[in-house]
């Protein structure tokens, strides 16, 4: 029996994706349970930093009440989050100006601040100030359950 298992095991493990495949874009799952309200984490998918923010009621209200006419790249907050999960924002953490990595919970809008050239994004990842031409990109993701998402 042990011999059979030893023979089959390499066959089974070879079917798992290797690190290069995962880096090339295999979906990743993220458990949201440990992320406290008002906190964010950074994970990596396809070699890109992904910010997952557990937004506060105040952050959600400010994002939803921002007049679209005041935005450089107008997009409603509801278009940037999943319905029924307004408290979760998932964005690619790469500034749309020159590709720097913005800092979370910085700047004038309680969102993201890019220290390279001063771009400021709000708590919905929308560009509010500075040279960046567009909002932070939202990667493809789905809720697997109320406490877990799959990115990719």
Give a verbal description of the structure.
- Helices cover 18% and strands 28% of the residues.
- The protein contains three helices and ten strands, in the order H-H-E-E-E-H-E-E-E-E-E-E-E.
- The strands form three sheets. The protein has a four-stranded antiparallel beta sheet with strand order 5-6-7-8, with no helix packed on it. A three-stranded antiparallel beta sheet has the order 1-10-9, with no helix packed on it. Strands 2-3-4 form a three-stranded antiparallel beta sheet, with no helix packed on it.
- The protein is an alpha+beta fold.
- It has a single domain (18-151), classed as Rieske Iron-sulfur Protein (3-layer Sandwich), CATH 2.102.10.10.
- The protein is globular and about 35 Å long.
Describe the protein's topology.
Layout: H1 2-14, H2 19-23, E1 28-31, E2 40-45, E3 48-54, H3 57-65, E4 88-92, E5 103-106, E6 111-113, E7 120-121, E8 127-129, E9 141-145, E10 148-151
Antiparallel strand pairs: 1-10, 2-3, 3-4, 5-6, 6-7, 7-8, 9-10
- Report low-confidence residues grouped into runs of 5 or more: 4-13
**Domains (count):** 1
CATH domain class? Mainly Beta
Rg from Cα: 19 Å
What topology, given as strand order, has the largest sheet? 5-6-7-8
User: Which CATH architecture would you pick?
Assistant: 3-layer Sandwich
Number of helices: 3
End-to-end distance: 39 Å
Total DSSP E strands:
10
Which fold name corresponds to the CATH topology? Rieske Iron-sulfur Protein
């Amino acid at each position: 029996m042990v011999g059979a298992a030893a023979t089959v095991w390499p066959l089974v493990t070879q079917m798992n994706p290797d690190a290069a495949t995962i880096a090339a874009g295999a979906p990743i799952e993220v458990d949201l349970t440990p992320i406290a309200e008002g906190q964010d984490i950074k994970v990596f998918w396809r070699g890109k930093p992904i910010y997952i923010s557990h937004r506060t009621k105040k952050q959600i209200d400010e994002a939803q009440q921002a007049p679209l006419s005041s935005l450089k790249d107008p997009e409603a907050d509801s278009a940037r989050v999943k319905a029924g999960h307004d408290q979760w924002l998932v964005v690619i953490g790469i500034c749309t100006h020159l590709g720097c990595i913005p800092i979370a919970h910085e700047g004038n809008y309680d969102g993201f601040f890019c220290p390279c050239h001063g771009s400021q994004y709000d708590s919905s990842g929308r560009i509010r100030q500075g040279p960046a031409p567009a909002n932070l990109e939202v990667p493809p993701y789905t809720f697997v359950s109320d406490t877990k998402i799959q990115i990719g």
